[in-house]
Design goal:
This protein is α+β, with helices and mostly antiparallel strands. It contains 1 helix and 9 strands. It has one helix spanning 2-24, and strands at 37-47, 52-57, 64-70, 74-78, 81-85, 95-105, 108-121, 124-125, 134-135. The protein has a 5-stranded mixed β-barrel with strand order 1-2-3-7-6.
C-alpha cells in the first residue's frame, strides 16, 4: 500500500513539473507589472471604446467570467518585426489565456491585461509548439539577456 502511495506521489510530482515547464516555456521574460495571475476562457464580449475584453470559462456547476482592460495594443510578431494589434478585435468564441495584474481600491477591482496566448481563433486550434506570449504592456522585456 505504501509503495502505491509513493508511486502515485512521484507521478503527481512529475506531472506538476511538466506543467510548470510548459507554462514557463511560453516566454522568457516577465513584465514588472505582472503579478502572476492568469485566466483561460473563451472570448464572450469585447468593448473597443473601453479597450476591454470578457472571457468565460465553462465550469460544471456554473460559468466563471473575467473582464479586463488591455494596458495598450498588443505587439504581435510578424516576420522580423512586431506589429501593433488591437486585441479587442478577437472574434467571439476565441480561446485564449490572459495574464494580468489586479488592483483593488476602495471596493473596486481592476484587471489590467499585460499579455495573452492564443489557443484557438476562428476554429483554428494552435499546436503547443505554436503558442507564444503576446505582450500587451508598455513595460518592456526584463530579466532576459537575449531580449530587446
Amino acid at each position: 500500500m505504501a509503495r502505491k502511495l509513493v508511486i502515485a506521489g512521484l507521478i503527481l510530482l512529475a506531472l506538476g513539473t511538466v506543467s510548470l515547464a510548459q507554462n514557463g516555456a511560453l516566454w522568457n521574460y516577465y513584465p514588472r507589472n505582472f503579478n502572476g495571475k492568469a485566466f483561460s476562457g473563451k472570448v464572450s464580449a469585447t468593448d473597443k471604446s473601453n479597450h476591454s475584453i470578457t472571457l468565460t470559462a465553462d465550469s460544471r456547476r456554473n460559468p466563471v467570467s473575467f473582464t479586463g482592460r488591455f494596458e495598450q495594443n498588443c505587439e504581435y510578431p510578424s516576420g522580423s518585426q512586431e506589429v501593433l494589434w488591437d486585441a479587442t478585435e478577437l472574434p467571439i468564441g476565441s480561446q485564449i489565456t490572459v495574464y494580468y495584474s489586479q488592483k483593488k481600491d476602495s471596493g473596486t477591482t481592476e484587471n489590467t491585461i499585460v499579455g495573452l496566448v492564443l489557443h484557438e481563433v476562428n476554429g483554428r486550434a494552435y499546436m503547443e509548439n505554436q503558442l507564444y506570449f503576446i505582450s500587451c504592456t508598455a513595460d518592456k522585456r526584463i530579466g532576459c539577456d537575449s531580449c530587446k
